[in-house]
Amino acid sequence: MTILQPSPFLGKKDTRTVGKGFQSVFLIIFTLLMTAGISARLVYLQIIEGSKFKQKAESNRVRVIPKQPERGNIFDRHGKLLASTRYPRSVYLWPMAHTKPSWSVVGPRLAAILDIPQADIEQKLAEAGANSSSLIRIARNLDEAQITAIKEYQNELTDVEIHTEAVRYYPHGKELAHVLGYTRELTAEQLKARKAEGYRLGDVIGQMGVEKAYEKLLRGEWGGQQVEVDGAGRPLRVLGEKQAKAGNDIHLTIDLDMQKAAEKALGDRNGTIIAIDPKNGAVLAMVSHPTFDPNIFSKQKLSQKDWESVQGEDHPLVNRALSAFPPASTFKIVTKTAGLESGKFAPNTILPTYGSLTIGGTRFGEWNHAGFGPLGFVGAMQWSSDTFFYQIGRGVGGPTLIEWTRKYGFGQRTGFEFVSEESRGLVPDEKWKQKAWKMPWTIGDTINMSIGQGALLTTPLQVAVMFAVPANGGYRVQPHLLKDNEEAKNWREPVKMKPTTIKLLREGLRKVVSDGTGKVLNQPTIPPVAGKSGTAEAWKRGVKQNHAWFGAYAPADKPEILIVAFAEHSGGGGGSVAAPMILQVMEDYFQRKYPGKYQKPAK
After folding, report:
1. Residue in 132, 323, 329, 570 annotated catalytic
2. What is the model's pLDDT at position 104?
3. Which residue among 104, 398, 430, 590 is least crowded, i.e. fewest CB within 10 A of its CB?
4. Predicted confidence (pLDDT) per residue in 128-142, tens digit
């Protein structure tokens, strides 16, 4: 009989089977976790971040070619063109160009053709960023030689493109420089400050004058093309296009013919001539010398000669019409008003005049060193007697004279559009003198101020506003250049004074021209004129070279034009230097407007 032996495995578990089961479970769990992780990542990438990555992918194959808007045209009051657009050709680069191996060839070649430092080109591209999808302008106003050279080397100059663009053009050049201003490519600081307004690298902006004041109206809106490109950046097809929106055209109050006449009258003298409508403040002409050609700023790079033309020691970019100077005897309008309105001097006041007066221990002279005998308010204006107005200033006192100075608008901006260019001038007072000189106000300060000297500073435009008060019957007006500026046209601030004061002001100003210091304007070639001269003491490089002033309006009984002429450091008097300039402008204006009425008498 055979005895069966028990199996050695009987009663024991098979560990190999258990191990295999555990591995299977672990693998399943691991797979599920990986699948869940991948799914979560796909959800994040496709749903949460999908639009972002889609945009990045699109930007790798879609390029935007921006289209600059055409800037609005500027016209004079009669529709004559003052500023427009021309269409030169410019060089553009893709921003990633300088990161490619080919840049070692492209960069030096392009810099040599354009005569621009390679570092300047690279800086512009770097500012845009290598991933920028917009073309960057490197140079404008290409000449034929440069265009030909770029075409000759087109196999080397990859990523270089030539496009036509809109560039500002001023057909009258220097004649309207300080009125129109100029446009220029944004500086890095300006771009940073205005990026939120839609400005971009290479954009141009109004930097001065009307171009700056009405930038928003003139600018327009950018357009452009969306272009699909291949891996090498070559365009394949246009995907879409947005038309650029041109800026608005604007019409100014400027009369181009009068502007040219004023430019001719001022000639090579440093100074300014301003013509306004005394009823509403519309500026008909505004010239300033020395001047400049605004077209030079449309170039990509200014030459040394260009820089010298705008950076001279006489500061050609400064608008003299908005700069401050002592107003001299033109200011006697204010002193006369203060005297009559204070109640301390009756309209029929007669005062003696002298060769000089000693007041507060200081001697104050008469301009003719002799005096004019007894004078009333009208005669004192006629002869511009200093000693007469010293007595008026002393009688009313500093506070009253200062009060009336401010009522005429001095010491504050006029409301003219060129806010950043217009000086407030200076009306000195006790507080100012204590702060500036650590000294109290004295009677001598009042005496000096009474004839428009001392620390008093006014702009020629403020002086024009002053003359408008007697011209229009007692109102300050707001000077302005935009023809459709209804708010400015209708702004009239009454300078409250008695009718007798206005009457005596107008009589005195008329007497200046008919029988006094402004007789050069008493001509049959223009209607009757009223006005006032001024000669301000001034020094230049240690030499006495006076400023010459004259302000006048016509016709004297019903004014339609008011002109202020100012000659800086002319060395002459207002009646002999500034008044003849006004005569030239008035002859041009009235003989054009009323042909045959005002003519030179036959010899």
Report:
1. 329
2. 85
3. 104
4. 777 666 778 888 888
Cα 562 from Cα 477, distance rounded (Å): 12
Do residues 339 and 396 lie in contact, with contact meaning Cβ atoms separated by under 8 Å?
yes
This prediction's pTM: 0.82
Alpha-carbon distance of 29 to 45, in angstroms, equals 24
Cα 372 to Cα 106: distance, rounded to the nearest angstrom: 81
Tell me the three-class secondary structure of 341-396, residue by residue.
HCCCCCCCCCECCCCEEEECCEEEECCCCCCCCCECHHHHHHHCCHHHHHHHHHHH
What's phi and psi for 306, nearest 5 deg?
Answer: -60, -45
**Which of these, 217, 211, 209, 208, lies nearest to 179 by C-alpha position?**
209
Rg (CA), the chain: 38
- What are the pLDDT digits (tens) for 204-240? 899 999 999 999 999 988 777 676 766 655 556 767 7
Question: What is the Cα–Cα distance from 276 to 472, expressed in whole angstroms?
Answer: 12
**CA end-to-end distance (rounded Å), the chain:** 173
- Residue 370 burial by Cβ neighbours in a 10 Å radius (0-12, 13-18, 19+): exposed
Task: Pick the closest to residue 214 from 461, 423, 480 (CA basis).
Answer: 480
CA 377 from centre of chain: 41
- With b for 16 or more beta-carbon neighbours within 10 A and e for fewer, the 178-205 pattern comes to bbbbbbbbbeeeebeeeeeeebbbbbbb
> In 10-72, where do the E strands start and end?
62-67
In this structure, are residues 393 and 447 in contact, taking their beta carbons and an 8 Å threshold? yes
Whether the ω angle into residue 69 lies within 30 degrees of 0, i.e. cis, is: no
Q: How many other C-beta atoms lie within 10 A of the C-beta of residue 393?
A: 25
- CA–CA dist 53, 38 (Å, integer): 18
Q: Which two three-digit tokens encode residue 474?
A: 């007692």
